Input
Amino acid sequence: MAYFIVRRMMIVLLTLWVASIIIFAMLQIIPGDPAQLMLGINATDDAVAALREQLGLNAPLFERYINWMSGMLIGDFGYSYTYGTAVGNLIAERITVSLPLALIALALSTLIAIPVGIFTASRRGTATDTSAMAITQIGIAIPNFWFAILLVYVFAITLRLVPAGGFPGWETGLWPALKSLLLPAIALALPQAAILSRVTRSALLETMAEDYIRTARAKGLPARRVLWHHALRNAFIPVLTILGLQFAFLLAGTIIIENVFYLPGLGRLIFQSIQRLDLMVVQSVVVLLVASVIFINFLVDLAYAWADPRLRRQG
Output
């Protein structure tokens, strides 16, 4: 198991290093001068040159990459001249919105999808199974931003049960803050729940066709025990994959939803920073999100090893 973890950690570090190079290189080929765009077309040449010097844009690319990565390793994400503050402060402020939103959406998605997948798999071929799979197909096909707008119209504008957008801050109290995240979390969770429920159903049906399941049934074990104690754990491995990918998407891919609900999260921060060509903010936040995705996949690998002892022996 120790060798399994060490090998996965080496892969994580290598992947993160390659990703940082790609992100840095991609942002350097963006057309236009970042200093000129920050100051506007009426800025003088001296002002643009001074800002380029402050941003370190005059240094060679390799030196800029080394300075940026060495700073990130010690927690220094650089300084945003657009926002007039350290990038680390911006990330710390915005992560308090994006992370709870992703966790709530993932919890809702899991609580809906796993029971639906198990229920439909246990009733394969029935009208209930067919109806549930048709509903999940609709959930997959509906764009989440359109669904978000529909939720705002029904629950915020018509029924006035929750706010239509914005975030009051955690200092106003737990319930007001959670209330403002409820609609965005639902808009993110339901399409993901549709995908996860179908994966759960397919994995469970495939596991139920295995020889050891037939053996358990032949021994006279109750159907419920066969399902919960023999089939579900083995069917959970592909479900773990989707859960890891979904949390990575919910954390790093909420740009549209955060803009629909005017949430001050990381997704909206990236969107605004790209518009203003604030390279320091964009590359630091993107690398941080990439690192979170890679780390989540590492945790999923560990969950694989927990669920399937054969992986530990192979490691």
Summary: The chain has two domains: 2-87, 91-314.
